[in-house]
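Thread: quick sanity check before group meeting

JM: Hey all, I'm pulling together slides for Thursday and realized we never actually wrote out the predicted structure for the chain we discussed last week. Dropping the sequence here so it's in one place. If anyone has concerns about the input, flag it before I start.
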Amino acid sequence: MTVTSTALLAQADPPTLADFGSDPIWLVIAKAIAMFVFLLVMTIFVIWFERRIVAFMQQRVGPNRAGPFGILQTLADGFKLAFKEGIKPRLADVAVYIIAPLAAAIPAILAWAVIPLGPTVSIFGTETPLQVADLPVAVLFVLAMAAIGVYGVVLSGWSSGSTYSLLGSMRGSAQVISYEIGMGLAVVGVVLYAGSLSTSEIVAAQTDGWYLIVLPVSFVLFWIAGLGETNRAPFDMPEGESEIVGGFHTEYSSLRFAMFFLGEYIALITIAAMSTTLFLGGWLPFWPFSMFEWAYEGWIPVIWFILKVLAGVFFFIWARASLPRFKYDRFMVFGWKVMIPVGLGWVMIVASARVLVPEYLSIAQYVLFIGVPLLALLLLGTVVHDRGKARRATALEQEVLREPSFPVPPLDLVVPRSHAARRTAAGSVEGTARETTVMPFEASTEPPPPAEVDEADGPDDGEAPRV
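JM (edit): ok, ran it. Output follows.
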């Protein structure tokens, strides 16, 4: 049975801030443990999923030995890491060296405390939201956890006593500082529309339409900044194998290296979950399931949430398999000179739209009044940029042709297309070369002149003359 938007909001029973804080302590602990197990299972699946997708895109087989379709390959890799020898560098700071992997993994796990997985359900007779906790500033809490995660990168590189590790950690700190600003600007548009920083209330505000439709620029900025925050390709500068061996975790092995691996993939899943919560309606069903009441009831919304998160993870994997790594200087220029100005301009447009455009307008009218003018401005800017680039290229080409620094073929050179014409042209060129070119051995039949001997350095007792 189909329902209206107002009825959907009532049927979904989305939790609010008032629904948190009254759960018994045993239920809070149970939800926290269940969330941690869920993250571990998702990490195992995402690693296998990434390896299979990348293998498919690169025409390889991928993991296919451990378990059906290689599904147990991640567990096999985990056991292999656990039984490897843990090597500690001689120059390492022992305490910081041990704490650094925990500092990289724990913040990524804590961020899931405020991510809603579903509506209010009944657990052992107690009505509770499918969310560990919520805060009036939950979005800022997630951004803070993403920023704190860089401490693990910095401490690991500094404590290893290795130059390569230190360079990787410094890259990571500069990268996170640069791209967390763009991520914050991407979130501002969502906050202006939802009127709240609570993740549960942001999901409830998207009952009538996802924010991806009205905030496409914010979604793209958040997605790109998420790649930068999680050190994923093509932004994996702290782990640049071709420049700094393995980056900040070069000197780590065994379970300590596994903690970095776990933290990276949990951070990847966290960014996908936050993009789902902020722009894709969270646990709300997508069309055509959004037309039915049963899609909003009980534990079923968890399925929609997981499917959206996996779709986000797929796009991250797609970017890794398709795009080459940026140069570090271009990467920083892109963050400071492209993402931040675009984010600031978009925030001004969204704020102006919220003030000037009445709230009763539909999504189609928003797209017409805001999206079309914005698209026209982008096209105009692209045309102006391309024309300026073409003029600069033409001026540079004329300057090169005016003063060539190396021999170039004539510009009117025409290459014959047929084989006969090519043989004829080749013969004529060869004959002309023979007529006009004198080879060294044909220049003269006279013997070469004798070598000159320096009289000042004449031969001594039996010494051969110096030529």
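AS: nice. Residues 8-19+88-385 form one domain. The chain has 16 helices and two strands.
JM: adding both to the slides.
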